[in-house]
């Protein structure tokens, strides 16, 4: 009979998602609103699938029901739950 090793108790070796505060969410909302209203180009930082990605463009619109953000440059939809920062 072959001995099978026990799996590790925790898998904390991966990348942890960022912890955002209420102030962070307010700032993200303000910058998205400015981009929609004035056509300001923004850089959206997203954390998804254990990695960070950055997208730049003007926000075309926001779909509240599905929680999606649409940018004018290239990338069609971004899940708003994955947004880390907007500059």
The name CATH uses for the topology is: SH3 type barrels
The helix/strand series, from N terminus to C terminus, equals: HEEEEE
Ends: how far apart?
Answer: 59 Å
CATH class: Mainly Beta
Mean pLDDT, as a whole number?
A: 83
Q: Give Rg in angstroms.
A: 18 Å
Strand content: 35-45%
- How would you describe the shape? elongated
Query: If helices are DSSP runs of H or I spanning 4 or more residues, what is the number of helices?
Result: 1
- The oligomeric state of the chains shown is single chain
Low-confidence stretches: none
What structural category arises from helix and sheet content? alpha+beta
Give the % helix.
Answer: 10-25%
Major β-sheet, in short? 5 strands, antiparallel
The largest sheet has its strands arranged as: 4-3-2-1-5
CATH architecture: Roll
Number of domains: 1
DSSP, total strands: 5
Summarize the structure.
Helix content is 20%, strand content 37%. By secondary structure, the protein is α+β, with helices and mostly antiparallel strands. It has one domain (22-86): SH3 type barrels (Roll).
């Amino acid at each position: 009979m072959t001995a099978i090793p026990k799996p590790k108790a925790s898998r904390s070796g991966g990348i942890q998602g960022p912890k955002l505060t209420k102030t962070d969410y307010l700032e993200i909302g303000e910058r998205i609103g400015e981009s929609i209203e004035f056509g300001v180009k923004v850089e959206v930082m997203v954390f998804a699938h254990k990695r960070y990605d950055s997208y730049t463009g003007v926000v075309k619109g926001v779909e509240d029901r599905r929680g999606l953000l649409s940018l004018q440059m290239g990338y069609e939809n971004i899940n708003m739950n994955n947004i880390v920062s907007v500059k």
